[in-house]
Structures are given as C-alpha cells and as structure tokens.
Amino acid sequence: MADITLISGSTLGSAEYVAEHLEEKLQDAGFSTQMLHGPALDELPTEGIWLVVSSTHGAGDIPDNLLPLFETIRDTQPDLSQVRFGAVGLGNHEYDLFCGAIRQIEALLIAQGAHRIGDRLEIDVLEHEIPEDPAEAWLESWKSAI
After folding, report:
1. Cα–Cα distance between 137 and 85 in angstroms, integer?
2. Where is the Flavodoxin-like domain (predicted)?
3. When you count CB atoms within 10 A of the terminal residue's CB, does the N or C end of the chain come out lower?
C-alpha cells in the first residue's frame, strides 16, 4: 500500500497538476505514493494518509470528477477514523466561496472521523501564477507533521 494516497479533483486541470507536482516531491523525499484522479470510495484505503488537492468551480462547487466520491462519503458515512489527511485547495478570491470545495471536503472527512495533518492550504490562483510553488512550500511543513 502507498504511504500517501493523493486524491485530485479538478475541472480545468490546475489541481491535477498541483497534485502531480506534490506526488513527485513526495517520491523524491522517499515516500511511496498512489495518485487517484476522482476516485470511487472503494478505490481508497480506509486507513493511512490521504492528500486531497481540489479546485473550486462555480459557487464554491466541488469538481465534477470528485463529486461522486464526496456524495458517496456523505451518503454512506463510512468510518474514516484511521485516515489522516492533508488538504490543498485552489480558488479565486474574487468569488464569495473562495476555496469552497476543499473546505466542504475537509469538513466531511472530519465528520467521518478522519484527522487533518497540519493546516489546510488555500491557493489563490490570481496571486500565484504557478500554484505548484506555494503548494511545494507548504509540503515541506506538512511532511514534518506526518
């Protein structure tokens, strides 16, 4: 099993690129990883470490490729008490629900017993032309909190 399961939710690809960049940095640091873009719940380990990277679209909406997972967790309420996770969101501060998707996902995971590792990272794509840069900086402190 992978040390860290990366889960990406992306509408236009930015969150996917950030997740892939973080995966590369984790592998460089000696972690084994598994990357899943919009997985089903039964594809995920119910213990260990998840790193969720999600963009927000519309009015704080979860990306279409991650929505089925979110709805399955919400509807079936699985025990995720053996999961620890990191959360990285991408958004645009000009919208009222800036990074609304990752905030919803984080709240749902915590409600199911999962434990967040470190602080949630929210990347404003208007301030960071290359969102991988703040994500990489955040990853350094996140790795030490694992």
Report:
1. 17
2. 4-146
3. N
Helix (H, G, I), strand (E, B) or coil at 10: coil
Distance from C-alpha of 135 to C-alpha of 112, rounded to nearest angstrom: 26
Quick check: 112 and 77 in contact, CB under 8 A? yes
Among candidate residues 26, 38, 35, 55, the one with its CA nearest the CA of residue 117: 26
Please state, in angstroms and rounded to a whole number, the distance separating the CA atoms of residues 102 and 53: 8
Residues composing the chain: 146
CA pair distance 44, 116, nearest whole angstrom = 17
What radius of gyration, in Å, describes the C-alpha atoms of the chain?
14
How many CB atoms are located within 10 Å of the residue 120 CB? 17
